[in-house]
Each structure stands twice: as structure tokens, then as C-alpha cells.
Amino acid sequence: MTDLKYWLWLTTRKGLGPAGALAVLDHFATAERAYYAGQEDYEALPLRPAMWRGLLDKGLEGADRILGDCDRLSLDILTLQDAAYPQRLRQIAVPPPVLYIQGRKFRYDEEVAIAVVGTRDASEYGEFMAQKLGLELAAGGALLVSGIAYGLDTCAIQGALRGGGPVVSVLAGGIDCIPAGSQNRYLAKDVAAVGALVSEYPPGTPHLAGHYDVRNRILSGLALGVVAVQCKDDGGGTMLTVNHAIDQDRDVFAVPNAVGAPLSQTNNRLIRQGAKLVESGRDILEEYVDLFPGKLGGVAPLSPVVAEARLSQPASPPPQRDKPQPREEPAPARERVPKSQQKARFTDDELAILAAIQDKALPADEVVERTQIPARYVLSSLTILQLQGALEEMPGRRFRALVELEP
After folding, report:
1. How far apart are CA 163 and CA 186, in angstroms?
2. What percent of the chain has pLDDT over 70?
3. Element (H, E) at 41
4. How many other C-beta atoms can be found within 10 angstroms of the C-beta atom of residue 209?
């Protein structure tokens, strides 16, 4: 723990940044040695004075605060020296010295991790394709990596959740600081329940514009390949991530768009320049079946017919949290599920949750209390049940059943 304090001290020095922190580690070998060095030692670093002057501040109060916040938020801290640190990230030009993680601990080097990226201002076609790819990748055994911005990030995540797979979302600020009023604050909770939220920024760090491209190198760095669904050729986040992927020697895939349609030029140009054209998750997964037979060999990607059927299932959109909540509407007519079909349609946890909310809408914490199922599994099941159209979220984060279970 003491050694970890020095890592947190080093990576939060004003003006240093990840590249500067790596230069310090390269010179001193450990964060602890860097901490106990003096000004003359810092002057010998291959850094501008504005970068190393922050090292003269030896206060550890900030590191103590971060450790306390991580404990409160149930965040794991992974440093570059840890054996569990992904080798894929070690190999990029500027690996993040520290990662903060909420959720599952993945062995990223053993995962068929695919980053799906795209513009926030997507067309209906782009939204459908992002959902479809997310679903097919997850159903085929891949690990979806994405940001968590509005637009195609959200669509890809929702598709992956429909496909039953976990998601890793890389953030551009503290895990506790997803912008207020964003509907994706609630999607982030669902991601953490079934997958993981990852950031190189400590708790309390706002999501700033300058952080996004810094974040994008991690998106591509964790993945074997990056899929551009729709993007603008204007230096936006999608093309920046694609460029990181090229620099990191990652595979690049692109979804073809209709000639002359908005947002078509960049994707089609990427294909002409060598990106693999993809129309389905199968087109991506087939590139990795031989390398990861244990992950993909026994799992066939969904057929287009099944994929479209899954995507057509109703899913309640997140409510607007920053507006006054309307009065609760009367419960709609509910589909009756015969007892003989319940086990085939729902897991045991999902059946227990549906039974708990048959007669009354309940918040998630009360569902946990009634079912005695761990909170993270309740949150995961609530998400999946919403995507299946078996329940809906009401004002106040309460959930009510849209199906009736035959006794």
C-alpha cells in the first residue's frame, strides 16, 4: 500500500502527464525513488522545468484521498508494475502508468477485445449497425470495448448487453464523475455491473475535452481491432482512435455506407485504404477464431435473422433525469408467461427478480433485499430484463414487471 501511494503521488503531479510520469519511472526505476529524489535529480530528467517542478511537492494528502475514494467506490488500482497489467497496453507508445477499474477484472490479453467507435451524430443506419455489431460480437464471445458517449458508443453497448456479453468502457475522467444529467450515468452503472469501467484519471477528475484523445489511445490499446461504424473526417474522436489503432498496429475495420449518404466518405475511404469491410460481427470474429479457439471456437455468431429479431425486442429508453418526473402511469397489460416456458426464457436470478416485482414497482436496493441476490447481479439482471422487454424502469429508479409469471 505504501508503494501504491508513491504511484498515486507521481501520476497526479501537476503538468507531468502520463508521458512525463513514464520518463520519471524510466530514470528512477520506481515511484518511491522518484519521491525521495531532490531538485538536482529532477533537473537531470529529460523534461521541461514546467513538467518536473511538480515533483518538488512531496505532499501525500492527495494520494491518501484517492485511496479513500477508491475504497468508497470499490475501485481497483492497477499500476504498470503489476503482473495483471495488460501486456497490450504495455506495448503502446505511452501506456497509462495507473488504471482505476470498477467492475470485473478481465485478463485482457486473453480476450478477443474489439473496440467499436463512431460519431455522436450518427444516422439511423449507423445506430442500427452499432447495435447489431455490439450484439453479434458479444454473442460470439468477444469483449466489447467502447467509450460511453451519446451516439454510437451507447448503441454498441446496448447491443452487447442484448447479446449477453460484458462491456468495458474507457472513460475520459474519474469513474465517479460522468457528466451530471447524462443518461449514460445510468448506463455506466449497468456496464460496471456486468463488465468494467476503466480510467487513468483518479476519482474526482472531471471529463474534460482535452482528456478524450488521451483516453482514445487506451480504447485502441486494449483491443485487437477497432471498428469504425460512422465517422467524420474532421479530426474527431473516431478518426483519432482509428489513427491510434494504426500507430499501435491494431486491425482496423469499417462499415460501408451508401455512396453519397451523409457520413459515408470517411468510412468508404478507410476501406479503400485497407480497412476490412464488415457487415456483421461474423466478419470480425472470423479474423480471430484460429488465434482464440477457446473463446470463439465453440460459439457461433448469430445469424442476421436472429440478430435483427433480438434488436427488435423493445427496450425502455432511460428516463430524462434532469426534468420533473411525471406521475406514475397505470400498469400496462402484461404478457402471461406459462410456467412451462419460464425456465427456458429466464435465468433463476431473473425469475426471482420478476417474482419480487410482480405486485409492486420496487427500487433496485429493495429488490436486492427481497431476493437476497448480490447487488451487482441484480443490476445486471435488471438491465437484461429491460432489454428483453420483461420489465420497465419507472420514475425514481423503480422497476415494474411487464410480464406475469404463472404460479
Report:
1. 19
2. 88
3. helix 39-43
4. 7
Give the domain 335-405 fold.
Arc Repressor Mutant, subunit A (1.10.10)
Backbone angles phi, psi at 271, to 5 degrees: -65, -40
Q: Is 372 left (phi over 0), alpha (psi -120 to 50) or beta?
A: left
**Residue found by looking up cell 470474429 in the block:** 285
Gyration radius (Cα) of the chain, Å: 23
Could you report the per-residue pLDDT of 106-135, keeping only the tens digit for each?
Answer: 999 999 999 999 988 888 889 999 999 999
- Asked if 78 contacts 86 with a C-beta cutoff of 8 angstroms, the reply is no
Name the pairing type of β-strands 196-199 and 225-228.
Answer: unpaired
Contact between residue 361 and residue 334 where contact means Cβ atoms under 8 Å apart: no
Q: With H, G, I as helix, E, B as strand and everything else as coil, classify residue 242.
A: helix
Q: pLDDT confidence of 53, banded at 50, 70, 90?
A: very high
The residue ranges of every structural domain in the chain are 1-64, 108-311, 335-405
Query: In Å, what is the CA distance from 269 to each residue of 161, 232, 233, 244, 266?
Result: 30, 11, 10, 17, 5
State which CATH number among 3.40.50, 1.20.950, 1.20.1550, 1.10.150 fits the domain covering 1-64. 1.10.150
* Domain 1-64 and domain 108-311 have a common topology: no
Q: Contact 59/14 with Cβ under 8 angstroms?
A: no
How many angstroms separate the CA atoms of 167 and 363, rounded?
24
Fold of 108-311: Rossmann fold (3.40.50)
